[in-house]
Amino acid sequence: MRAIVVDIVPKDVPAEELEHRLAEIDSLVRTYSGVVVVEYVQKRDTADYRTFVGSGKLDEMLSVAGELKADVLIIGNILKPAQLYNISEEIRKRKLEIQAWDRVDLILKIFADHAKTPESKLQIELASIRHMGPRIFGMGMELSRQGAGIGTRGIGETNTERMRRHLREREQGIRRELAKYVRTRTLQRDRRRRDQFATFGIVWYTNAGKSSLMNALTKKGVLSEDKLFATLETRTGDAWIGDGEHGVRALVHDTIGFIRDLPPDLIEAFRSTLEDSIESDVLLHVIDAGDPRIEEKLATVENILADIGAAQPRIHVFNKSDTLSEREIVLYREKYAILDPVFVSAADRTGVNELKTRMYHALLEFL
To answer: N or C terminus: which one in the chain shows less Cβ crowding within 10 Å?
Structure first.
């Protein structure tokens, strides 16, 4: 996939923030096995109501897309249905072989590519319906307006109602299927409680190294890739946590990672997968210790956890600590003293035993 990317940012956005946004979009494209051939940045405080990017910028990008034989135009923001429809219409008029996606479209494509289980595939379909549905309705109404006065009045509107009913019925069917998985996991959690198994849920800003940490804690053998959203399903492994001879067997869950600006509908679609983390006794919030944007990503994860009702005690795990000097670790301990972080390197298991001890004491303190 050859992608042309454009990101719209406020005029006063700092250069560091802009660089981060572009790097994240580029990482998303690479995760989908694509390559960015041209990257645009447009600084404007108000998006164009018709095409989001404005007619001049759109004309420029589509001309370049035709010359470079790009496959997709990706707008690194969340577009309204009418805006994406208008962009698609411009593409159609030019007879270009290119698709137009917004940021959520790209994320959904990645999710669909990585979905392996029946449940995760259903969640992808539900998220797609929630995201694409309004566009379909908008297109139907556009057809209705275009047909007015030429003997076809009402056709688009009728099609819209048909599509609305079909999507509503499909959404209801998916929710019924997902409810079965929820019931199964609820029974499993109840059984674990009866057996007195402690549970930990791993949460993180995606690509913070949680799969490596999962492997270090449980030897589960979870896929560890330098890709966003490499896994979508909940994975559970056994871990012996404690201090020396004092310890207990615990279960560790890992689920999908979070990322900035995830729409509520997308989070809602994955709520059933996230339930194991929500219902865990303690959360392990994994942070990439070498990331220069720790505070922003900490806030992103904490905000999403609040949105989904996860209020358990946290252990903040600064992973990839091997990328820090001893002085940097001391400074981080001071800066984030309120979090009482544990520094580990899952890759070489440095600090993992300390983390297991902290996990054990968290159970004694909070449970």
So the answer is: C
Is the distance from CB of 140 to CB of 160 less than 8 angstroms? yes
Task: Give the position of tokens 């096995």.
Answer: 33
User: Does residue 149 have a pLDDT over 60?
Assistant: no
CB 81 within 8 A of CB 135: yes
Q: Tokens representing 134? A: 């309004």
Question: Once rounded to an integer, what is the mean pLDDT over residues 152-174?
Answer: 73
Residue 185 inside a domain? The answer is no
Q: Tell me which residue of 10, 78, 66, 79 sits closest to 38, measured CA to CA.
A: 66
If phi > 0 it is left, if psi is from -120 to 50 it is alpha, else beta; for residue 228 that is beta
CA distance 228 to 45: 29
User: What are 154's two structure tokens?
Assistant: 């009402």
> Do the domain assignments include residue 190?
no
Strands (E) across the chain are located at 2-9, 35-43, 72-75, 99-102, 198-204, 235-243, 246-254, 282-288, 314-319, 342-343
- Among 168-177, 220-229, 314-323, the minimum mean pLDDT is found in 220-229
Do 128 and 17 share a domain, yes or no?
no
pLDDT over 70, % of the chain: 79
Judge if 202 and 144 occupy the same domain: no
- For the stretch 258-279, what's the b/e string if a residue is b when 16 or more beta carbons lie within 10 angstroms of its beta carbon? bbbebeeebbbbbebbbbbbbb
Has residue 180 been placed in a domain?
Answer: no
Chain centroid to CA 105: how far?
12
Q: CATH code at 285?
A: 3.40.50.300
Domain hosting residue 128, numbered range: 115-175
Task: Please choose, from the candidates 175, 138, 134, the residue with its C-alpha nearest in 3D space to the C-alpha of residue 269.
Answer: 175
Q: pTM, whole model, 2 decimals?
A: 0.75
Tell me the CATH number at 20. 3.40.50.11060
For residues 279 and 256, what is the distance between their CA atoms, to the nearest angstrom?
A: 15
